[in-house]
Amino acid sequence: MDRGSRKEDVELIPIQRSTLVDIKGVPLFGPTLEIWDPLWGFKARPDDLLICTYPKAGTTWLQEIVEMVQSGGDPQKCARAPIYTRIPFIELVHHILSGLKDAEAMPSPRTLKTHLPVQLIPPSFWEQNCKIIYVARNGKDNAVSYFHFHRMDQEMPEPGTWDQFLEDFIAGKVAWGSWFDHVRGWWEAKDHHRILYLFYEDMKEDLAREIRKVAQFLDVELSAPILNKIVQHTTFANMKTNPMANYSTVPPSVMDPAVSSFMRKGTVGDWKEHFTVSQSEHLDKVCAQELEGSGLTFRTEL
């Protein structure tokens, strides 16, 4: 069955806010715990490409860029199905969807998605020396985007107020755990594995430059016209209106666009509309402590 046609099936299922469970010290969804053994034993293939991010750090943007690079700039290949069908989300268990099963059934070469922190990545990805692309976003904008995603996605845990959510975010009491641990763990792993580490802010600053990095990492040569086509296809404005990328194929009972759109603003610095001065100073302090000595720094404005 074409997964792009399952919207009606999902609408028949009552939607409930999720609760989180602890998996090896990281808060994740209960259904993920139920598939943890087969997920941990997942058999990666040498030509797998894994896209990894902390939630709401530019995941969908990077996925679309990668598919456009892989297809030689052919938007029709990206239009064949919604992005969550084209690139399986390996730890996702969602009613009649299973990212793990979809990934296992997918022919090679596969592009897969995960939000898992580095220590929870199935070992076969390291054993097979798979290429991994990671994108990180500054913690302030990431927190704001994640808050609004909790508001609109009716299966995410109840976020509470902005103040409550920010406390949970800084404490790592949100799905996929601590942002600080996530971005630092993957940053340190890049010195030992085939990992391209990108920054959301760099992508906003010069998208063509960052796409060239992706293409080079994937051993794909891009002509100037094809590069320009990929840049145009993956601008925020075009992504926001692209039904194969903007999650509008998900029923509003699950993701409610009346609350917030899945692709909301796509800017750097929107945190200034949400953070108080004391909240900003507090996150800066925690960030300095948690990332000390790593060499990892973030820009919170351009």
Please provide a written account of the structure.
This protein is α/β, with parallel strands linked by helices and 302 residues long. The chain has one domain: 3-Layer(aba) Sandwich (Rossmann fold), CATH 3.40.50.300. 42% of the residues lie in helices and 11% in strands. The protein contains 16 helices and 8 strands. It has helices at residues 7-11, 30-34, 36-40, 59-70, 75-78, 83-86, 99-105, 124-127, 139-152, 162-171, 179-189, 200-205, 207-217, 224-233, 236-240, 277-290; strands at 20-23, 26-29, 49-53, 93-94, 97-98, 111-114, 131-136, 195-199. The strands form 3 sheets. A 4-stranded parallel sheet has the order 6-3-7-8, with helices on both faces. A hairpin with a 2-residue loop joins strand 1 and strand 2. The protein starts with 6 loop residues before the first helix and ends in a 12-residue tail after the last helix.
Brief synopsis:
This protein has a single domain, classed as Rossmann fold, CATH 3.40.50.300.
Explain the layout of strands and helices.
Elements: H1 7-11, E1 20-23, E2 26-29, H2 30-34, H3 36-40, E3 49-53, H4 59-70, H5 75-78, H6 83-86, E4 93-94, E5 97-98, H7 99-105, E6 111-114, H8 124-127, E7 131-136, H9 139-152, H10 162-171, H11 179-189, E8 195-199, H12 200-205, H13 207-217, H14 224-233, H15 236-240, H16 277-290
Parallel strand pairs: 3-6, 3-7, 7-8
Antiparallel strand pairs: 1-2, 4-5
Helix pairs in contact: 13-14
